[in-house]
Design goal:
The protein is of the alpha+beta class. Helix content is 47%, strand content 26%. The chain folds into four domains: 5-59, no CATH class; 72-172, PAS domain (Beta-Lactamase), CATH 3.30.450.20; 177-249, Helix Hairpins (Orthogonal Bundle), CATH 1.10.287.130; 257-416, 2-Layer Sandwich (Heat Shock Protein 90), CATH 3.30.565.10. The chain is built from nine helices and 13 strands. Helix 6 packs parallel to helix 9 (367-378) and helix 7 (261-278) runs parallel beside helix 8.
């Protein structure tokens, strides 16, 4: 189409109108009015053709712009005030949608996971104020099929269909993130394996050195009975280290059931009675809850309690009270506290407790507490330690509780010796 169509049309209309007036009104054709109206028609037509030309050029540019965005292998969304105005085919596929129409008009808040929406609002505010490119921010996107994917997004300020908007380019990094996580876990496992290997070598080398020395004495015909006792003791120590290590490594088929926490603690105290009496330790239970139920593997939980009570008794060489408190911690958490008045642990050593072969005891391995941490973690619980040197230690375990008979009216305090 001729780019001067509007100009020609309006000039032609002016000529026809003047011709009509000249024929039927007998007015002069080449009058001042003719030149005035024709000049105006020529100018208006020129402006009209000019605006139409630029509009067509803009439409062609926008079509080319959209074709470019469609050809990109990454997801592209154009949005304003969190409302999606445009989505390319890669974005439609990434969101597991059927077509573009299913995304247009939808809010980004319906797509971005709630934990990442604060980040989205912050970026919106920044880019609206600064109007600059923002690079590589991570979001978790929920797709229509219910799956979650991680996207790395860059955004910039653009003009789209005559409106100010934000263009966001997203790259799916879920597989890359999973691979990095696997590599990180593998690295951590290798580091832990190296640490444990070094610890095992160190712990086993000590009794082996003793055994080697006494075997050399046997060879020289020395038959002292106490030498045999030391060798047997060191062999038992090696066997104990290996046994604890196997508990950590061996997978078990755990059977979780509802158990009365008070009953489990009573059974453990009975098992610990002999050791507590020999060490002049009085075990006191303070419990104002009625049948607090937890979902657990009872033998594992008893192993944890036994280990903590054993450590507490050993921390009080001169005897003393060991208090076990059972209480409601929060709306859905129950707490078991083991409070001794032993030698205590220095604050700088507490963060290392639970690491393999890190122990405060002369002949300990550190594996017992490490096993406790693992068991409690498997029960969705949490173990915390507070201690002061010379004053004692408090070890607290928090569990999710089960059942409705959590609170009782009577204060059930008992002392077991």
């Amino acid at each position: 189409m001729n780019k001067h169509t509007g100009q020609i049309s309006l000039v032609l209309i002016s000529v026809l109108f003047t011709s009509y007036q000249s024929i039927f009104s007998h007015e002069k054709f080449l009058s001042f009015d003719f030149f005035l109206f024709t000049g105006i028609a020529w100018f208006v037509g020129w402006q009209f053709d000019k605006s139409r030309y630029y509009a067509e050029k803009a439409r062609a540019s926008e079509e080319s712009y959209k074709k470019l965005l469609e050809s990109l292998p990454v997801s592209v969304l154009i949005h304003k005030n969190c409302e999606i105005l445009y989505a390319n085919s890669a974005a439609v596929s990434a969101m597991s949608r059927l077509n573009t129409d299913s995304l247009i008009g939808q809010s980004l808040l319906d797509i971005v996971e709630p934990d990442y929406q604060g980040r989205l609002h912050e970026r919106y505010q920044h880019i609206s104020t600064e109007k600059e490119l923002l690079n590589n921010t991570e979001y978790m996107i929920k797709r229509i099929d219910g799956t979650r994917r991680y996207f790395e997004v860059s955004s910039l300020y653009v003009e789209f269909e005559g409106k100010e908007a934000i263009l966001s380019i997203g790259t799916d990094i879920s597989d890359k993130k999973a691979e990095q996580e696997q590599l990180l876990q593998k690295s951590e496992k290798l580091a832990l394996l190296g640490q444990m290997a070094a610890g095992i070598a160190h712990e086993i080398r000590n009794p082996l050195t003793s055994i080697k020395g006494f075997v050399q004495l046997f060879k020289s015909n020395s038959q002292k009975e106490e030498y045999f006792d030391i060798v047997l003791s060191e062999l038992d120590r090696i066997n104990g280290i290996v046994g604890e290590f196997l508990v950590l490594a061996k997978p078990t088929a755990d059977i979780f059931e509802k158990q009365d926490l008070t009953k489990l603690i009573s059974e453990v105290i009975l098992l610990s009675n002999t050791q507590s009496i020999l060490n002049n330790v009085e075990i006191k239970v303070e419990n104002n809850l009625h049948a607090p139920m937890v979902h657990c593997e009872k033998n594992q939980l008893k192993q944890v309690f036994l280990n903590i009570i054993k450590n507490a008794i050993e921390a009080m060489p001169d005897g003393g009270p060991l208090t076990i408190k059972v209480m409601k911690k929060t709306g859905n958490t129950i707490s078991v506290q083991f409070i001794d008045q032993g030698v205590g642990i220095s604050e700088d050593r507490i963060p290392s407790l639970g690491e393999p072969f890190y122990t405060t005891k002369e002949k300990g391995t550190g594996l017992g507490l490490m096993i406790c941490y693992k068991i409690i973690e498997n029960h969705n619980g949490r173990l915390t330690i507070e201690s002061k040197v010379g004053e004692g230690t408090k070890m607290e375990i928090e569990f999710p509780f089960e059942g409705v008979n959590l609170e009782g009216n009577e204060n059930r305090n008992t002392v077991l010796i």
